[in-house]
Amino acid sequence: MLNDFLVPTSRNKNKPYLLRKIAIVTYTIMLLVVNYFGGIFEIDQAYASSITPANIISLTNQERRSSGLPELINNAKLSTAALAKANDMFAKQYWDHFGPNGETPWQFIRAAGYNYVYAGENLGKGFRTSEGLVEAWMVSPTHRDNILSPHYKDIGIAVVEGTLLGKQTILVVQMFGNLTASVQGVTSTPSSTPKVVTGSQKVITPTEQGEIRSIRITSPEIGAMVTDPAVKIKGETTNTQGEYSVAIVESSQLIGTADSEGNTWEFSKESDWSEGEHRIIANIQGTDIKSAETAFTIDSKPPIVSKESVKVINSSDKFTLSFEIIGEWNQADVVISSEILPVPKSEVITSANVEIPKTMDTSKVEIVVSDSVGNSSTLDVSEYFKEKEQEDIKIIPTMGLSVKDGINIGIVLFVFLLLCAQVVWYTKRGRIKDSVGELFTVGVWWLVIAVAIFNGFSGVVT
Fold it and tell me: Which keywords belong to this entry (predicted)?
């Protein structure tokens, strides 16, 4: 009997019940209800997001590079401020740059210990990808101005999931800052006549004009500390014509090549650069023209809090939180809802203790630790401040998907398998020609539905 629903049989006149017109109409109605009226039936629309702070910073810096601006540096204090702001929006249920009680972005930045001269904030809600979020920011004039502002040098990102105004969503807070009054991206215009300055400061103007062909590495800069292990090597050449190849060499070993036709080139390694120092040289292939050696260091691993070391002592008027930090750290903060408590360094630099008054809201407690170059990690320790409660039993594992996404994918996959089974059945019996038109109709319907489900993710920025 079950076969009649899934595969062609004589009883169902060679057409599975689950691929008939009434079934297709039912699937369509289910998808419409889930995707457009899910809120009425309280269908959860939270989702596992590919949005990460690292991705957003990388895409933001990509936009800045395209506009000729220096990259922003990941700053742990701004990241802590962004996390506190996101927690505050969830705690007080608002979606704005300014809170219901007059909270401003600047108070979170100052509370994190970042004494800015310039500061700014972008917000995003409901996006599924970092690319979609940054694209939305870039088409909004005010958000674009923040991303491409020459006044900023530092950046901090927080990505937090929770319930806002009755809906499960992911909030992204992007904060910018500059501790000085200097503006980035201002360059001087070179004079038309080249000049050479000697050690004696005597200015010599060349009397003979010739052609010099050269290559140099422009990024990373010599001695740079790089937190992105997928960093791209960039450079410039002079007097190159047509297509040419640049070889990147480290310790006499060829790392890879990059092709170019202009006076700039870019090399992307197939895998991440390993942690530690790297010394590389760029060489125009087929020539003896080489760049000067560039040394840079990859430091992308943040310090982390050992979860096994976390302890909370409950006294009459306070909690005492203690934990150990693995790796060298420069700054640590305990973010309690929207409040920020700096962690003092003890004589034993791997351990820390923080006293938390019971007057503070400990429903959301996170520890943020970072090193001197801005690598940071966050550990949620809220559970240590709550009485043990029976956890909800999850009948169906979500695998990071929302109920809505699970239903969408489930229907699309189910119909696809039914179509495959029917094609196999007809092919084995040599009757595929008799059902081509019908299979084509259902296949087109399936393709349209699949494209509609997986195409175009949207969200809100402010």
Answer: Membrane, Transmembrane, Transmembrane helix
Final residue belonging to a domain, choices 253, 281, 298 = 298
Angstrom CA distances, 219 to 71, 198, 226, 295, 355, stand at 11, 26, 10, 10, 44
- State pLDDT tens for residues 276-328: 999 999 999 988 888 989 999 999 899 999 999 999 998 888 999 999 999 88
Is 411 a member of any domain?
Answer: yes
Task: Tell me which of 82-86, 195-199, 348-352, 445-449 is least confident.
Answer: 195-199
Predicted TM-score (pTM) of the model is 0.63
Neighbours of 363 (CB within 10 A): 12
In a domain, 328, yes or no: yes
Each residue of 109-140: pLDDT tens digit?
999 999 999 999 999 998 888 888 999 999 98
Q: Which residue has the tokens 């791209």?
A: 232
Q: Which of 225, 223, 112, 233 is nearest to 173 (CA)?
A: 112
Name the E strands within 152-310.
Answer: 154-164, 167-178, 196-197, 203-204, 214-219, 224-226, 233-238, 244-250, 253-260, 264-267, 276-284, 294-298, 304-305
Write down which residue in 132, 154, 178 finishes a domain.
Answer: 178
In a shared domain, residues 174 and 289: no
Q: Which domain holds residue 333?
A: 304-384
Give me the number of domains the chain comprises. 4
